[in-house]
Amino acid sequence: MTQDELKQLVGRAAANYVLSNVAQGAVVGVGTGSTVNFFIDELAAVKDRFRGAISSSVASTERLKKHGIVVLELDEVETLPVYVDGADEIDREGHMIKGGGGALTREKIVAMVAQTFVCIADTSKRVDRLGGFPLPIEVIPMARAALMRRLVDLGGDPVLRLAKDQSVFVSDNGNSILDVHGLTIENPEALEIEINSWPGVVTVGLFAQRGANICLLGSADGVERIDY
Ligand code: 5RP
Known about the structure:
There is one protein chain. The protein is built from 6 helices and 14 strands. The strands form 3 sheets. Strands 3-2-1-4-7-13-14 form a 7-stranded mixed beta sheet. Strands 9-10-8-11 form a 4-stranded antiparallel beta sheet. Strands 5-6-12 form a 3-stranded antiparallel beta sheet, covered by helices on one side. By secondary structure, the protein is of the alpha/beta class. Helices cover 30% and strands 27% of the residues. It has helices at residues 3-21, 34-44, 58-66, 104-113, 144-153, 188-196, and strands spanning 27-30, 52-55, 71-72, 80-85, 89-90, 96-97, 114-122, 135-139, 157-160, 176-181, 201-204, 206-207, 214-219, 222-227. The model has no long low-confidence stretch (mean pLDDT 97). The protein has 2 domains: 3-127 and 209-227, Rossmann fold (3-Layer(aba) Sandwich), CATH 3.40.50; 135-204, Alpha-Beta Plaits. Bound molecules: ribulose-5-phosphate.
């Protein structure tokens, strides 16, 4: 199976999960990324069952709207029954590294409001310890150099994310992203709290305090459901 076929498999499994576990007329939280794109495409087939979606990025909003799925503002809902999103890495406790697509801040906000976080991933994302994937951190542009020095002190190797045309990548919120290589992440929750406390950090892409509740993990053998 190709990686895209695995992504499609888990995207379909997530749409089935939502169909079976979320009440008719509910609002669904939607993440960002290539795996989520398959989920959005599957959700489109059953869109009339739901009131609409809360989106975690401009890119997902565009895709949802293209399918005729209503996109609501987060202000319009108090809670969400489910949030479906991908991950760059997920460990055995449901802690994740996210933000490879640069949408980590809005993803964390939507995840905070959701009752159940369903992570969709293929087995290549499952790790024993987080940190093989460079840790994304969204930062206020004026703090970039100062935060890079702090991250070096922490043992990391931060790199300012660039866009495809080599200009500085700008997030949906107008900020920069530092991708930190080489961190040894022994305690994801403690590191999340520490980095988030630094002035200039908007969001660190560690999702440990609020990790996944369920992972739908795709492999050549099918989709395994893991509960945390
Ligand atoms: C975007 C994310 C994505 O969920 C993560 O990067 C996984 O993406 P993909 O499904 O394309 O591998 O956190 O900010």
